């Protein structure tokens, strides 16, 4: 078929299919987010217009925002579908880099198609070309190499034949999943080639389920049988594998308490008797108590990031670790027993060797008794007060949410409130982007999630800082008719970083508005409701008394395809504490004695840090 490079790429994307967890088929690429410029409007833009009914195109208003929406879409479909974003060369392309970082850190698929400069170099230097003095082959798109799982620059049309299988591999492989960047020079987009018709035949991509090495599985099962206080830690890999029922069934069969990471949050129902509560700095005191007592941790589908492990102080120094992960890169970390496998097949394989083994009944019961104490603590934090706290906002949203609903956040203090305080009633109710902790994901990601989830209400919670960082996709979603609720909590600045700053002995500086430089006696304040209304949103200003009713009204508006924004003032210094430590860079020299005292506390805490686990 004689096609341009752009036409061939679009036809190939349309031909790619995916198998969902319920075994039904859907498009692997359900749509494209696009902002057109001179580097993509004629080549790729023309090809997309030719297939506008087969591959929908959604217009964004900030390149970073629309790519984050693509990430949110992938997360909401458990990595079974992939969002695509295209831009021109130059600043538009570079605006995608942050979203690539989010996808890379969170192991989420994302296809980026930035335009690139002419391969012929005949018109050089062209508009938006940076011309590196040291490398004639480089462009701004080389910045993507550090944040792409796969990077390629298509300099001849026929190179697609070799590149596209690699694109599909990375986007659908549970071990290598992450962002792919195909840089597309604008002259090459328009060049033709006789492509083989086989390139455009439909292909169905299914969940890969690599089985573990039998010896590794047997050795891991031996460690489990030798333990008396095992703890099952469920990560995002359990969700992406579709292994939720298998993981919970495994815990039930052997009486193993369960805790969750950030990406694994809400995999187990809150009131399940084996649920010990979430783990880590933003987790729960109950989950952390069991982690400290455990003699074996079975970590499934998680890379055990610092917030999950409390910078590696949440576990006993003598703990053993069994790590089940599709990616060997993650499985071998920290000196544990690596079981490289799909979450589902790994857990099934263990049962071959465990026979009739059971965890001691008194240990099994610890999950429920410990979590009851944490629940009582959260109940106190949710009690009414004159000024709403984050915990109260989360509780009120939680009270009105059901199993089909979806709640999100990304940065600031809200991740700790959602992870620690949310009470799940279903297995797929939360997306906390705390791998990259990207301010602005809350709104853009919610747009993508609302597109991906035809039932239930998507609610995103964010602070005033994130709202001001990236709010343009409120209009994108409102214009497109993808309804969701955004709860904007205004607490006068970057309150959680102020907390970190002053909590380590530093003076409050440049975070809360009261500590920021201004030449005005009365500087302006943002009217978030008026701003959101100007972007086409339905707005619901609220206070402590009216919040439940205003949020209920916002949910009704979102169900009708509107973007509904609830604005509320929140307390700047009330937080949910899980009682875990987190390592940050406290200076060894400072003019404030409070900083030096905090440094001494850090040095003492580091003495309890597990650097490498005891070998099996």
TrEMBL record:
Instruction: Give its E.C. classification number.
Output: 3.7.1.22
- Domain named Thiamine pyrophosphate enzyme N-terminal TPP-binding: which ranges? 39-128
Q: Which UniProt keywords apply?
A: Hydrolase, Thiamine pyrophosphate
Thiamine pyrophosphate enzyme central domain mapped to chain residues: 218-347
- The residues covered by the Thiamine pyrophosphate enzyme TPP-binding domain are 426-567
| Pfam families, A to Z | TPP_enzyme_C (PF02775), TPP_enzyme_M (PF00205), TPP_enzyme_N (PF02776)
Which InterPro entries does its entry note?
A: DHS-like_NAD/FAD-binding_dom (IPR029035), Myo_inos_IolD (IPR030817), THDP-binding (IPR029061), Thiamin_PyroP_enz_cen_dom (IPR012000), Thiamin_PyroP_enz_TPP-bd_dom (IPR012001), TPP_enz (IPR045229), TPP_enzyme_TPP-bd (IPR011766)
Which molecular function term from Gene Ontology is one that the record holds? 3D-(3,5/4)-trihydroxycyclohexane-1,2-dione hydrolase activity
Top enzyme class, one word, equals hydrolase
What's the family?
Belongs to the TPP enzyme family.
Q: What is this protein's record name? A: 3D-(3,5/4)-trihydroxycyclohexane-1,2-dione acylhydrolase (Decyclizing)
Species of provenance: Kutzneria chonburiensis
Question: What gene is behind this protein?
Answer: iolD
